[in-house]
Amino acid sequence: xxxxxxxxxxxxxxxxxxxxxxxxxxxxxxxxxxxxxxxxxxxxxxxxxxxxxxxxxxxxxxxxxxxxxxxxxxxxxxxxxxxxxxxxxxxxxxxxxxxxxxxxxxxxxxxxxxxxxxxxxxxxxxxxxxxxxxxxxxxxxxxxxxxxxxxxxxxxxxxxxxxxxxxxxxxxxxxxxxxxxxxxxxxxxxxxxxxxxxxxxxxxxxxxxxxxxxxxxxxxxxxxxxxxxxxxxxxxxxxxxxxxxxxxxxxxxxxxxxxxxxxxxxxxxxxxxxxxxxxxxxxxxxxxxxxxxxxxxxxxxxxxxxxxxxxxxxxxxxxxxxxxxxxxxxxxxxxxxxxxxxxxxxxxxxxxxxxxxxxxxxxxxxxxxxxxxxxxxxxxxxxxxxxxxxxxxxxxxxx
Length: 399
Prior knowledge:
Number of helices: 12
Strand content: 15-25%
CATH class of the largest domain: Mainly Beta
CATH architecture of the largest domain: Beta Barrel
């Protein structure tokens, strides 16, 4: 058996496959020790893969699965819990007889390659890859695009399959969705930058919308919706016109993927920059601290950081990463004068072991308040909300 992810991806890229990639939340991995069992899958995704589950009381479907790279074979169960107060869908029975999901896998990408004999029938088998490192995650994201926390990605590896679209877009906020007639002419001529999309989101959700934590999540959802609205207007006409060569198809696929990556790489820190300005914080963004080191944010300024007379206890550094499972270590050698680093993330949970490693290394997690419930109970009290970070940083400036 070849456990290479390269060979595995090739083996699951046929016309009969539908991929679904997501990052494991703390609930998925068991890190929160909640009553919920299995991996959460949005109902529209589950119904695409298992059409028979669209109706009935707690409908379910069982399918054979091979879990890589460990090479375990088992039968998994897809179920939509729809009785009483429950309304969620999951894939269960991972830990029988041996455990596959572990708390320390929180934040890792898992890719399901479901196999269907017909578009109208249920999937009967799934090949599954649970990423073991960042290199494997990058390889999957190079194909399906960036996999954001809380946002799974549905993908048809063979491209156009019947009437199925080439590129799948996530569910979007209806209050931010644009029709082609709503999109500015200049955006149709030249795809807008991430900053332009954020400015539009800010105009729709001003400071009065809510506190910093609420604004960050709502605006980012809005900006994502704006992005995909414009992308749809850009890409769909090209798809409908068809391709005269494989190279044209590949060029379009690469263009869409690269644009999505570029946006994902800048979105979070640009939203934070706008919020810090609204809150009256003094800061420097993207300035060099030493050598080639360029922290996302330095408080109160890069000039204060470079001033040897400025007290180190009155300096703050904040890094922005949508996910932090392995990437948190990247910030440890930034801003040498600041021993304790702050990291804002949108990842839905970490394990107790992961959090302990961060604390021991001097990293403080900053997480929007709404996401605190997705972290283990023992960790929640030690998280900072964005508003708490802002208020603490202001208090140090006044001291």
